[in-house]
Amino acid sequence: MPELRTEEFQINMGPHHPSTHGVxxxxxxMDGEKxxxxxxxxxxxxxxxxKICENRTxxxxxxxxxxxxxxxxxxxxxxxxxxxxxxARIEVPERAEYLRVxxxxxxxxxxxxxxxxxTAMDLGALTPFLYGLRExxxxxxLFEMTCGQRLTYNYIRIGGVSRDIPPQFVPxxxxxxxxxxxxxxxxxxxxxxxxxxxARMKGIGYADPQQAIAWGVSGPVLRASGVKYDLRRDDPYSxxxxxxxxxxxxxxxxxxxxxxxxxxxxxxxxxxISQALxxxxxxxxxxxxxxxxxPPAGEVYVRIENSRGEMGVYLVSDGSEKPVRVKTRxxxxxxxxxxxxxxxxxxxxxxxxxxxxxxxxxxxxxxxR
Amino acid sequence: xxxxxxxxxxxxxxxxxxxxxxxxxxxxMFEVRPDDLLEVARxxxxxxxxxxxxxxxxxxxxxxxxLEVVYSIASTTRRLRMDFKLVLGYENPAVESVTPVWPAAxxxxxxxxxxxxxxxxxxxxxxxxxxxxxxxxxxPMLKNWDAPDFVxxxxx
Amino acid sequence: MGVLKDLKNLILGMGITGKHLGxxxxxxxxxxxxxxxxxxxxxxxxxxxxxxxxxxxxxxCLLCMQxxxxxxxxxxxxxxxxxxxxxxxxxxxxxxxxxxxxxxxACNFCALKMxxxxxxxxxxxxxxxxxxxxxxxxxxxxxxxxxRKKKKPKESxxxxxxxxxxxxxxxxxxxxxxxxxxxxxxxxxQEEGNG
Amino acid sequence: MLLALMSLELVHIFRxxxxxxxxxxxxALWVLLISYALLGAIMFGVLAVLALxxxxxxxxxxxxxxxxxxxxxxxxxxxxxxxxxAIKLLQKEDVTIDARDRFIFxxxxxxxxxxxxxxxxxxxxxxxxxxxxxxxxxxxxMAVTTFTIIALxxxxxxxxxxxxxxxxxxxxxxxxxxxxxMVASILTVIIYVGxxxxxxxxxxxxxxFTWFIFRVxxxxxxxxxxxxxxxxxxxxxxxxxxxxxxxxxxxFNVEYxxxxxxxxxxxxxxxxxxxxxxAVTLFFGGWNGPWLPSWLWFLGKTLxxxxxxxxxxxxxxxxxxxxxxxxxxxxxxxxxxxxxILAALMKYLGWYW
Lengths: 369, 156, 195, 353
Fold this sequence. Notes:
The complex is a heterotetramer.
Chain A: E1 9-13, E2 25-31, E3 34-41, H1 49-54, H2 58-66, H3 73-88, H4 94-122, H5 127-147, E4 156-157, E5 160-161, H6 169-192, H7 195-201, H8 209-214, H9 220-223, H10 231-234, H11 255-278, E6 298-306, E7 309-317, E8 325-329, H12 331-343, E9 348-349, H13 350-359, H14 364-368
Chain C: H1 2-19, E1 45-47, H2 63-67, E2 73-76, E3 89-93, H3 102-106, E4 112-114, E5 129-130, H4 132-138, H5 172-181, H6 188-191
Antiparallel strand pairs in C: 1-4, 2-3, 3-5
Chain D: H1 2-6, H2 11-22, H3 28-65, H4 81-91, H5 102-118, H6 137-145, H7 147-158, H8 162-193, H9 198-203, H10 218-233, H11 245-248, H12 259-283, H13 294-315, H14 321-349
Helix pairs in contact in D: 3-4, 3-12, 3-13, 5-7, 5-12, 7-8, 8-10, 8-14, 10-12, 10-14, 12-13
């Protein structure tokens, strides 16, 4: 009886597949259920944002960069404004800094709530997604009240913020902070100690800290592997040194810790927001910036801590009103680059690959730009 | 250590290789010659004082007169950040791949190669990243690039 | 031991989802109950007209056209013989518009506002290009704070605006008559703009 | 009032109809054939309506668990939404790929649909409301419910699609390995009833405390293991890896559309009802219950168990394939066999009521 000949077969997970957030294609070589090799193919969502920004004025770049990462587009506005302010050495008024921190942290919570929902959904539990979105609506209402839009805000501008907050923002924000803090217990009740969830998440997708740093991974994925590296602390920008919050770190770098790190981060962000709301000073919300903004010639690389890791903008200007080069860097870019390293040769099943891909929280606009 | 100490230390230890460019802002910007890029990169990473083990960003930029490849690096343990860049001409620009030192540069170099046309020597797997496989309309990110249906903003 | 703890957590999880069974739903039934956007939210762009005279506030200074990142606003206002621009057509292509609000901030004659309205979906793409008439009509019921510096001297009689001093653009009646002969003349430099 | 309720037993109507048919003077064989044909038609009608109701009910329960409304558009609270879906699926074009294995691809949904109905022959809906009281009732049902594996395998292999093949293989492994604990937990009940016929099982649980769920040491354990194995049989969430949307796009029914897909869909919901009907018959005393007519009791208890299955679906994530197998063989089988021995010991020692 000839020895049964088995061979690996290739399967395309993507480009449109229920669990690739956005349009990403993973070419999997499979040995039965086990994934031998996962090769990502990207570029389906490439809109050449950098080329578009090169023939737009600085103020026009901000709504364009809103679309660079639409889940936390507040941080996209912020990182570009910070770069322009560093080039032109603009002094941002105190109240604008506070408003910026409040908006950035609210946006981080909204992004993490989506993460909790989509990760649970990728593993089969459909209800936490709806609960996550229900909380996120509270934050969306806050954003709609201040800057008028629910997804692409165009709120943080060069020199400050576009509008002051309406009077009913502060009480509503405090109430949202209270509700979200309470509802976290619901997610933990359904998911954290659930034996099926533990079986699917614990010990799977171990990311070695040194390898993660070498591959440029940053943000919650890096902090879940025990590297205490948070740009709000290690490369301080804005007024984060005024608030006391601790960096959410976990040590054994598997799916479960990557999930818990983000829940801790939601709690830290809630702490920051309540402190920022208490200390919100009066004053105007935007420095004097000419309509045809012309920063002096120069180049700067600025990076901030986004919910998916380090988000940076390398801005080159030659004194004219249009930037010469806007190189944007997102966290998901390196995490997707790092994914094959984790999956190669560890005999993970396709279900684990879906879980790892979900806890990496990769979204495609940031990768393809 | 602060930025000034960093610049002083680098100028002293990397005598000819990294020349300081004064851009008058926080992070120091250095310039390196293309041929000793790898050696400088390896020393930056392994130097015990510096330990630049994290490549934040790597990208090319076309400033109409020349092509520049900029590396922004940081150290996760020493809280340091630094940029250095490489100037290349327009005719067949080439640069060595820094993936042996920082594997993170893998995709950045693939993207730079297909968008700017900068050839990256001995890169692990050089495939087009963002553009479709059968893309043949030149290198889009160059300033002098043009294509039949490329519409610029109306100049007002 | 382990099994009992797992069982407890499983039942606890079901308890949480179970108790939501009794709670009231948070979603609204769209066509019947509508979501009212809060004041100042960026819906569709509308042209505002003066409260008394009903003319457009727009003085065709083309600032909004320059501020728009996606070249969605197309204004045709050639310079008349008396060196003042006469507004002929003001189109906004909502297929291109990214609702960023930069035009509203660029306009300092409060002629343009983003009304809190969001229902304007159409079947075909070119129905999304709204001309001046439709923009003005949609802007009728939008109230706004008139921050324009009053050019007219403070004479008591509101009456018809004094022709000379009034720099507000020519009344729409004039734009109506000009419109039928050459509908929406596209000036050459805009032709190339709407990519 | 009580008397009126009592008289609502449906069995009298069937006897009266049978009597009517008998004295029309047709030969006995004809009468038998017509009555069974009529019974089949009634069963098909009742179960089809039941399946449609279950689909609607699941969407409403899911909606309210997730704090939204569920179908609201067609009719009050969307009651004829599933009928609209069924009609839509009926008239939808039946897209089939030509690289399929024609025969197997075509007959897979039919086998799945028929297998779902076969089990209802000896499920007692009420006092005397049973199509055929086979004396090997529960054994017959166990044999018939394993038909679904064949249907899933046929669907997986027939659609010539890698995802479907994976789904088919997974479902075969899963249903086979969960058959063993299910049968073992049923045996614990059979020991006490002494007969396989469903009517006897129900008869042995007349009073409230003789329900098997209350026979403390082995009853609840048997019920728990039965329910876990049953969710795996019906491919419900913690064990729904054959058509895990997130991994295999849609598992075995990825290439099916139109009426073929509807057949798989309805069969899945019917399986869910079968499994909870057996659970009610075995552990919750079938149709026994004071005051209300017997079939109403049966329907109420079964819908409660179905609600439990739905809660499983909308709370728990999904198990991985190897964890699922490991859980079945390494945990469920030892527990059920231990329970079986415990029950047998207690029967032998006489400590039961």
